[in-house]
Amino acid sequence: MSELLRLDGINKGFRGQQVLTDISFSIGKGKAVGLLGPNGVGKSTLLKIAVGLLSPDKGEVRIFGEPPSWQAFERVAFLPDRGHFSRTMKLNEALDMALRLYPVFDLGIAEEILEGAKIPAQASISELSRGQEARLNIALCVARKPELLVLDEPFAGLDILSREAMVDAVIGAISTGVQSVLISTHDLDDVEGVFDEIILLNDGRVALNQEAESVRAKYGSLRQMYKELMRV
Amino acid sequence: MTVRTLMDFERKGWAKRTCWNKWIKGGTLILWLGLSVLFAYEGWFKEPRIAWLALFGMIYSGVGFGARATVREWKEEKLYWWLSLPAPREKLLLAKALVALERWASLFAGVFVYIALYIFLVDLAMGGWSWHQFLLQLQIGFAEVLLAIALGPFLVMVGMLLGSFKKSSSKLIVGLLWGLVITALNLQVNLVGLQFSDKTDPANIIANLNYVILLAEGIVSYGLGFLIFKFISHRLKQGKLLTGD
User: Fold this and answer.
1) Under 8 Å CB-to-CB from B77, ≥6 apart: which residues?
2) CB-CB under 8 Å, B1 with A54
3) In what order do the strands lie in the sheet with A3-14?
4) What is the ipTM of this complex?
5) Among A14, A73, A103, whose Cβ lies nearest the Cβ of B84?
6) Which range is least confidently modeled, A70-79, A139-148, A156-165, B181-190?
């Protein structure tokens, strides 16, 4: 199957307020897809619907050709926009636990990503800096070697070095067996060259869904495209 | 993935007590024990068995333990990590419920031992200690243990349901459900109490629980606990619980 994820006519609202309207797109094998849009446009909600953590009011989601279920999480790794794997665990405890929790977990990949993060062995996760915890979180996702890696705002609030490390981890994931990546972000500086496809959300609708190459050809850069389309 | 692995993951999430916290709590309990023995020796205590009422209250703390298990997902922001573990929702929930029960049961057992020791020492200080008297005292505690076994899993599930909702109106509904349990228990205590001329002694009433009513109550509470478990896991599968929807 070449299509890993398909969303058809997704609608979602909270307490009478419509957040997403008629969202449809699909993600094929081997693609790095950027989900772009301003804060509060519904990117996080859409990603949670895509992996089956939230149910849509209307529309259909298919992961690997099936409706979302817990089995999909054996092949999908989801990194939420905030939150901790566990606040009280130390680094080694978190890695040991990941080895037991996930059917596939490559400790070597995790350690490679964590190299240089200078995480103190005795510090619990809640005591780590934002950059350190972000690196641990991406390591926990990428080391699972998922077929689909879904990352919600992985670069938000990180310093330049941490952002670069995160981007390297994502690029590394693509080259070491992760089939496809879906990343939501509004921070385009570091990921300009990473994406194969772009989905732009505005006012809860898909404003653009195109190959990144043709976007770059038309607008010069993703950043320029974002500026022009968001200004309208 | 086994339930045991998920339980280990859950256990890691429960806050670890700091060294100071342990010393302060332990010291307070020993101090209270010492003062009680002293007061008993001075003849200020008449009915040490009233201490068993503290254990009776502990039964209802099961709701708090259950609520903490689910509220913690929000508070510690590990909800989406937890929900995206590759395991059936029933297994995730079962591990959570078992660890909450385990924590509650270990605290309950600790309080039981403390009260038994307390009564032993206070009776001794009062000069009226005998094996027969002590076993009669323990009878009250064991009746409470039976009550805890009958109601515990249900109370923990009610707590988990209570902690799963974000809306205050939903909490009100679950709160009312909990109120029903207390009403049922009061009814039971009153039914048993009718057998005694001394209706004002709650310890006496607890010690003489009607075991047929207790068994019926246990069956109903386990049934309701199971229904709540199925309800929460069904809503989790739909992505409609714990997620703010």
Assistant:
1) A82, A83, A84
2) no
3) A17-28, A3-14, A58-63
4) 0.87
5) A73
6) B181-190
CB contact under 8 A, A53 and B9: no
Q: CB pairs below 8 Å between A and B: how many?
A: 82
B239 CB near a chain A CB, below 8 Å?
yes
Residue B11 CA to chain centroid, in angstroms? 18
Give pTM, 2 decimals: 0.83
Hey, are the CB atoms on A70 and B86 less than 8 Å from each other?
Answer: yes
Q: How many H helices and E strands in chain B?
A: 9, 0
Instruction: Give the Cα separation of B209 and B141 in Å (integer).
Output: 11
Tokens of B25: 């709590």
- All residues of chain A having their beta carbon less than 8 Å from the beta carbon of residue B75 are none
Cα gap B46→A206, rounded to integer Å: 76
Helix (H, G, I), strand (E, B) or coil at A90: strand
b/e sequence A215-228, b meaning 16+ C-beta within 10 Å: bbeebeebeebbee
Q: Which long-range contacts (CB under 8 A, 24 or more apart) does A100-108 make?
A: A100/B1, A100/B5, A100/B8, A101/B1, A101/B5, A101/B6, A101/B9, A101/B85, A101/B86, A102/A144, A102/B86, A103/A74, A103/B1, A103/B86, A104/A144, A104/A145, A105/A143, A105/A144, A106/A143, A106/A144, A106/A145, A107/A143
CA distance B245 to B237: 13
Six-digit token string for B70 = 């689910």
SS3 label, residue B83: helix
Rounded Cα gap, residues A105 and A101, in angstroms: 9
pLDDT in tens, A33-90: 999 988 888 899 999 999 988 889 999 999 999 999 899 999 999 998 877 788 788 8
Angle (deg, nearest 10), helices B89-126 and B131-164: 150
Length of chain B in terms of residues written: 245
Residue of B nearest to A82 (CA): B77
- With tokens 């989801």, the residue in question is A78
Q: Which residues of B119-136 are buried (b: 16+ CB within 10 A; e: fewer)?
A: bebbbebbeeeeeeeeee
Q: Which residues pair with A7 in a beta bridge?
A: A25, A61
